[in-house]
């Protein structure tokens, strides 16, 4: 039996989804801001003196919500958001493969019925 490259690709994509169990939806945002203290180094407004702020923005219970993320969790959160993006790309690719296969089977059925 011939090896179907689409089935191989789909299988590889499905097997790769297991590592994405820690994914988070939304967007990870890193921005710089002033703290508001007049004596702080950030008061000069220079970007390199601003304080980092980490946020997770997503649709939660039907509303856009933004969650502040502590610096100690920033890299983990960034990685989890990237996992979700990878999941979405894999799901899109799997659905595209399945649609192409369905359309081919449909075409084969129509050709059998004609002839």
Molecular structure report:
This protein is α+β, with helices and mostly antiparallel strands. The protein is built from 2 helices and 3 strands, in the order αβββα. Strand 2 and strand 3 form a beta hairpin. The longest helix is centred in the last third of the chain and has 44 residues. The radius of gyration is 23 Å and the shape is elongated. The mean pLDDT is 90.
Brief digest:
The protein is an alpha+beta fold and 115 residues long. It is 49% helix and 21% strand.
Secondary-structure element series: HEEEH
Q: Give me the Rg, rounded.
A: 23 Å
Strand arrangement in the largest pleated sheet: 1-2-3
Helix content: 40-55%
Number of strands: 3
Q: What is the end-to-end distance?
A: 25 Å
| Mean pLDDT over the residues | 90
- Tally of helical segments: 2
So what's the overall shape?
A: elongated
Estimate nothing, just give the exact number of structural domains: 1
Largest sheet: 3 strands, antiparallel
β-strand amount:
15-25%
SS-based class: alpha+beta
Contiguous runs where pLDDT drops below 50 for at least 5 residues: none
What topology does this entry show?
Blueprint: H1 5-16, E1 27-33, E2 51-60, E3 63-69, H2 71-114
Antiparallel strand pairs: 1-2, 2-3
Helix pairs in contact: 1-2
What are the defining features of this structure?
single chain, alpha+beta, 3-stranded antiparallel beta sheet, 3 strands, elongated
């Amino acid at each position: 039996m011939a090896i179907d490259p689409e089935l191989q690709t789909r299988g590889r994509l499905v097997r790769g989804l297991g590592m994405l169990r820690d994914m988070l939806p939304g967007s990870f945002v890193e921005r710089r801001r002033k703290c508001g203290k007049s004596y702080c180094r950030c008061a000069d407004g220079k970007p390199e003196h601003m304080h980092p702020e980490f946020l997770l923005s997503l649709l939660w219970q039907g509303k856009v919500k933004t969650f502040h993320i502590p610096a100690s969790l920033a890299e983990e959160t960034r990685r989890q958001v990237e996992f979700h993006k990878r999941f979405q790309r894999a799901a899109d690719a799997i659905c595209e493969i399945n649609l192409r296969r369905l359309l081919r089977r449909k075409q084969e059925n129509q050709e059998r019925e004609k002839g």
